[in-house]
Amino acid sequence: MTRPGVELADVFRTAAAGFLRWHWASFQQLKVIRAITRCRTAALGGHIDACSGCGKDWGLSYNSCRNRHCPKCQNQARTRWLTAREAELLPVAYFHVVFTLPHKLNTLIRANPVALYNLLFRSVADTLIEVAANPKRLGAQIGFFAILHTWTQTLVFHPHIHCVVPGGGLNSDHTQWRATSERFLLPRRVLRSVFRGKFIDGLKDLAASGQIRFPPKLQALEDPTRFRAWIRGLHIHPWVVYTKPPFGGPTQVLRYLGRYTHRVAISNHRLVAFDGKHIQFRWIDRKAGGTPRIMDLPVDEFIRRFLSHVLPKGFVRIRHFGFMANFQRKASLESCRQLLRWVPSSTGDSVSSTEPNWRCPDCHAPITVRERLTAIQIAFRPGLRLCAAFDTS
Question: Is the overall model pTM greater than 0.70, yes or no?
Answer without folding.
Answer: yes
